[in-house]
């Protein structure tokens, strides 16, 4: 493994605060090698994935509706050195609300 993730290793997750929908974008399975761009560690992934969002090589899928809150924290102040992300998601239904806490491992080294 190298320090340059390719498009197929990147996922964009965002909360649309207007619609209260949580979306995820990622490269489709079987992405052609020529389209699986490699990115350096200094890449602005937020800007890069915003540009690619919704394209054939980086389509989006709805993860949930009625998501009223989302926070996340990395285990290191330097995002390039982080190994873990923790998150809290709040969902508000018609008759109930719930909070989900979780932790996920970032790209292995």
If you had to describe this structure to a student in words, what would you say it looks like?
- By secondary structure, the protein is mostly beta strands.
- The chain has one domain (7-105).
- Helices cover 7% and strands 39% of the residues.
- It has one helix at residues 45-52; strands spanning 11-16, 21-26, 60-64, 67-74, 84-92, 97-105.
- It is globular, with a radius of gyration of 15 Å.
Summarize the model shown.
By secondary structure, the protein is mainly β. It has 1 helix and 6 strands, in the order ββαββββ. The protein has one domain (7-105).
Strand order of the largest sheet: 1-2-3
Total helices: the number is 1
Q: How much helix, percentage-wise, in residues? A: under 10%
- Count of distinct strands: 6
Q: What's the main sheet like?
A: 3 strands, antiparallel
The quaternary structure here is single chain
Order of helices and strands: EEHEEEE
Query: pLDDT average, as an integer?
Result: 91
The best one-word shape is: globular
Radius of gyration: 15 Å
**Which structural class fits the helix and strand makeup?**
mainly beta
Task: Quickly count the domains.
Answer: 1
Residue share in β-strands: 35-45%
Any low-confidence stretches, pLDDT <50, length ≥5? Answer: none
**Kindly, what is the distance between the CA atoms of the first and last residues, rounded to a whole number of angstroms?**
7 Å
């Amino acid at each position: 493994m190298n320090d340059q993730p390719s498009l197929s290793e990147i996922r964009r997750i965002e909360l649309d605060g207007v619609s209260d929908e949580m979306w995820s974008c990622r490269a489709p399975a079987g992405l052609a090698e020529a389209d699986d761009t490699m990115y350096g560690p200094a890449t602005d992934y937020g800007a890069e994935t915003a540009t690619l969002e919704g394209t054939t090589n980086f389509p989006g899928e709805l993860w949930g509706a009625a998501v009223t809150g989302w926070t996340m924290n990395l285990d290191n102040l330097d995002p390039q050195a982080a190994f873990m992300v923790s998150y809290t998601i709040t969902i508000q239904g018609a008759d109930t609300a719930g909070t989900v806490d979780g932790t996920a491992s970032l790209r292995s080294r």
